[in-house]
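Objective 1.3, modelling of assemblies. Example input:
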Amino acid sequence: MENLEHFRRDTAAWLEQNCPASMRTPMSEADTIWGGRRFEYPSEDARLWKERMAERGWTAPTWPKAYGGGGLSSAEAAVLKQEMRRLNCRVPLFSFGLGMLGPALLEFGNEAQKQQHLPHIVNGDIRWCQGYSEPGAGSDLAGLQTSAVDAGDHFVVNGHKVWTSYADKSDWIFCLVRTDKNHKQGGISFLLFDMESAGVSTRPIQLISGASPFCETFFDNVKVPKANLVGELNQGWTIAKRLLQHERAMISEIGFADPSGQAAPLAQLAREYLGESHGRIADRVLRADIARHEMKTQAFMATLQRASAEAKAGQSVGATSSMFKYYGTENNKAKFELMMKIAGHHGLGWEGPGFSERDLTSTRRWLRSKGNSIEGGTSEVQLNVIAKQVLGLPD
Amino acid sequence: MENLEHFRRDTAAWLEQNCPASMRTPMSEADTIWGGRRFEYPSEDARLWKERMAERGWTAPTWPKAYGGGGLSSAEAAVLKQEMRRLNCRVPLFSFGLGMLGPALLEFGNEAQKQQHLPHIVNGDIRWCQGYSEPGAGSDLAGLQTSAVDAGDHFVVNGHKVWTSYADKSDWIFCLVRTDKNHKQGGISFLLFDMESAGVSTRPIQLISGASPFCETFFDNVKVPKANLVGELNQGWTIAKRLLQHERAMISEIGFADPSGQAAPLAQLAREYLGESHGRIADRVLRADIARHEMKTQAFMATLQRASAEAKAGQSVGATSSMFKYYGTENNKAKFELMMKIAGHHGLGWEGPGFSERDLTSTRRWLRSKGNSIEGGTSEVQLNVIAKQVLGLPD
Amino acid sequence: MSMVLNAEQCATQAAAKKLIQARSPVLALRKLRDEKADRGFDESLWQQMVELGWAGILIPEEYGGLGLSPGYLSVVLEECGRTLAASPLWSSSLFATYLLVHCADSAIRRDTLAALAAGQCQVAVALEERARHAPYDIDTVLSAGEHSTLTGRKHFVVNGHVADKFIVSCRDAHNQLRLVLVDAAHKGVRVERNWMVDSHNSATVYFDNVTITSEQFLGSADTVQLFDSALDVARLGLAAEMLGSASEAFERTLAYLKEREQFGVIIGSFQGLKHRAANMFVELELARSCVRAGFSYLDEGGSDATQLAKLASIAKMQLSQTLNLVSNESVQMHGGIGMTDEHEIGFFLKRARVLEQLLGDDVFHVDRYAELNGY
Amino acid sequence: MSMVLNAEQCATQAAAKKLIQARSPVLALRKLRDEKADRGFDESLWQQMVELGWAGILIPEEYGGLGLSPGYLSVVLEECGRTLAASPLWSSSLFATYLLVHCADSAIRRDTLAALAAGQCQVAVALEERARHAPYDIDTVLSAGEHSTLTGRKHFVVNGHVADKFIVSCRDAHNQLRLVLVDAAHKGVRVERNWMVDSHNSATVYFDNVTITSEQFLGSADTVQLFDSALDVARLGLAAEMLGSASEAFERTLAYLKEREQFGVIIGSFQGLKHRAANMFVELELARSCVRAGFSYLDEGGSDATQLAKLASIAKMQLSQTLNLVSNESVQMHGGIGMTDEHEIGFFLKRARVLEQLLGDDVFHVDRYAELNGY
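Predicted structure (tokens):
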């Protein structure tokens, strides 16, 4: 305990000294430091800050020092996070390597793979993307068909992935491939390869809401060394499931953590667009819809708090991630639908001078919200999981 | 056409002359003339009116004269109905024999059965009940287990029926029984027998809304002559399905034909219980709920009209009875839930002096309405039928 | 906020479950109903509750109570909700007691609290005069002059016909809200028992020129604030009871879905029903969080009236909506048998609507929440 | 009411389906969008529509029209809705034309009607000034005095940037509603094209001291009644178009449910999805009935303004609600591919919200229906 306070003092002092002033201002999504071969740092300070943190392994605070990590205990890592927050230090590096692949490699990778990849993730030299979904394998991810055929010392990969976030900007991919056609889950392997390999191509996906980080990724006889297989052959599904848990938790946060803080509360929007009468929002029906929505959101946030408190108390109910994913995304969609009703004509703009920037952004966000209940496991899949795992209803 | 007008004049004249004045006043459900061995006629006029109509076969206008029916063409029967309505003549006899068993016997019965039963139905001498559902066979009616075992010249029936309307007041039962355990639908037969047979007992069912016409009916080694089998052995399911169509159509009408006309429109109730402000129902949210409900009801009624117009024009869409059953009953339940909200405390009475008669009736009707989406095929079954038969979705 | 029960509350809940499941299953309510029991609840069970200290949970130790926070009562109410148990716990031991505990000191208050803790007295709050909950829309008046008199009519008075005293809301000559404590036996007080759909107690109470002396007043300048807080605590108490009822109805229905076969399969295997069940589960989880949030705030000594009001309105809204959904779905999913009086699930449906209306349904609280937020 | 189409209307519908499916599939709208087409619709297709007489369906034969009832146009609009086809049919040939046909006789009216029938002129109705539909809540004013001038700003003017003339709602010096016909080329008129989410045409139109002469007025004492009826006919026209869009989106989704496999089965075999599909089917059937009821009333010469208003509000409410439901479910049931711009289903979602808001969504019409019924 005393050591921890010692650690806190040292950390605070180091952060004070090493975090550039410009890295202690609020950041937007556009300021995210992804790293990678082709990444252009928005400023010299950003590069410096990332480098200083990476040098101490504090971009991956709990990873072993042997792989470039910080080697911190989880208590120390928590202190680091608190101090960074207290001093408004920006996140120095954010990547799928740090959040997804790294933990998987630590758990399932062999020594050579850890040595090869983890330090580059910590440094932000290599940017990773995730090759999971396919046109025919969405909710039924295990139905994937991208094949990796044994060709002696390497695999030959052929197939078509979709929803590969930032595939066009990434250096390497961690990818689910089929290595046995006769077993569904038991025929999937987890491969790593360089996106510059011959036969890899990508195409960005335009969404109904406009440009997106998503890509389609095509593999045409891509050669992948066998050393790049993580875990055993045909055992990739276990790794995939572990990674999906992370993803689901990330998406359910969409609904309640409005990171940009730009969205005006519905009541404020309503005052502006619907006017007031007797000091209240003039349209009493929409006023009630707004209040009900805000109350449900409060109820949902209380549930997140309670789940966290119960988890600490060891009373977890299970399948909470499915519940949060389901409710958070449905509630978020409902918020945008309500916003559309309030904004009326103002909510229907696409571009050009007839609409405010806020209006145009909200149109896009409304459209984008429709994907929340599809990506990372559809609402239907979450309800199935709850019915089966929590309620014990039969198949 | 000329003949029809002739028929109309004669009919009108006859009705004018033969329908007692007291039988030309509005009737409530309690005034229904069911007939049967133990039926007590509410008045001499009621008996007279039934007898006069039965004598002409006009209690069953389109049935053949040979079986006591009226022998009318459907055009003539329509004229009779119109004239009765025009002159406010009460329905002289209403029974499951007329509405359900009779048509089935005409289609599936043998000559002896028609001779034996139809005239008594026309006269109202014998009151019939329907033995279909069982504790274990609700939505899945064909799963029924009441057995009829071949014992030479008779069957021996054992089992337990539920939801037998008016079993305690009926003289005979038409009953689905299992005659083959190895075939589900193909092991069901359609039997007729006297409720006074040894081994038959009944017990009225109390509903959540209070007393009801429903009974449980128990068969303990009931002997039924083989002559009482309608149709072939194990072919009863065909007859049953035909009868169910009638039942479904009857229940879907609940929602829109408020026969008693007693229910105050929601808006009127709201004015009374919620008060007004600026000439409008004071609670604007409930006001909107009321308006929306009334609009949906109008939309539903327009759909009934359109279906009838399209049927005439030969454009029927199919499975309309499932659609009407589903929507009509769900809409009716929604109406009573809304009524409960409007009435507040007044909607929560059960009996005694603290509540008006109207309040107490509406409490019971609210509770009773919950059964609408269960009886005669649940809402879930109707949605399945639509999905399969109209939309062609696979099993 | 802690959001979880502490160890003592868990123990209280376990004790409550044991007693209530044993002594007051749904069957007990059926018997009270069918026998048209005079008191409308089981007096011997009530005395057992008193012995366990539940009547005095909120009452300071100096008056013989336990001096605990409302969270301890919430877990008992939740268990009562599970079996629809009838008792004066909510009406007298929570709602009326909270008012008395928090009003200004006086002899009458001291005496009444001691009697309440000892189970020798029951107090009912008489507030409603409209079809729907409207605590400030009242016509009951307190005449001015040397000898004030109370005149008016209150309905939906929970446990009114067994109450020894009433706390009555009224308006004085300055149109100010006042709360007065009136003896049920006082001249001019007349009580008429109502037979409700849920077979719980409710009464209409008439006050005809009832003489009121100054000691009978609860609160003074702060009456509105006192009344509001008491209403909010009582609403949270209802929410706790509703949570018990909704959870129980849901669990019974879930068990039925796993047991009932049609078409050769367990009906709980149909995805249509599964998704509806999963959705109910999520709403129930939200409901539980709202109840916990409200009582955590009270247990931790939260004293901001607006914050309490928001928490109470959110809880009463969420529970009204959820109990409405669950009670309807429970009957529908039970099918025909759910429609029979013989089956117990219908009791949950009947009780549900009463609990929804008491102190405001979702429509009321949505409006109030908007009001509290200034829009 | 007949509730079914007559033989000629069926023939018109068949002809419309043939032309629109061939010449204006959803792909055509995509092209107009991607090319940022100047006019925002296909001028040659429009001329073909004119040749088929559609521009003159409502216009009396003496002005070169067909002199038919609005039901004939409804079936064409329904087909346009199926492919989201852009054209001036609703804005000019139904809404504006109805106003001109039913206003008092004048030279300007006669000339305009003849030009409309011949497809040589397009008129747009400029009415909205608020975020949500509010036809009588306007600030555009007509100054008093010998030479009236019009000043104001209108938005959400459908096909505004291609209109030759505008019918503009405004208030005169007596605060009376007036409708004036204004040339787009007139001094003081400025048009700004908006780029909408549905890629259909909409504009903001500014009127800055535009001189108005007495011949430019539509209607006189009966302006409100004329405007109301035209709004209701236009609402029914939108409902017809929405019926087409909702039906098409539903049918495409149904086809996808029958074709898409996951977990080794057709996803349309999941009961959860089946029940939602069946429920949508029922809502669509109700929607169709509302549209038919409205146009049957018009076709049969119904002239009671209140009756028309109720039918129009019911139809616009039901269609707004149904199209909202169907457009959301369509994307959800298509899953990831439904989120891509490459797939056409998203176009239905985008167009849906515009159609919902035009001349009032369900919230607006529910309120109006209560108003019409005097509660």
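The first strand of chain D starts at residue 123 and ends at 126.
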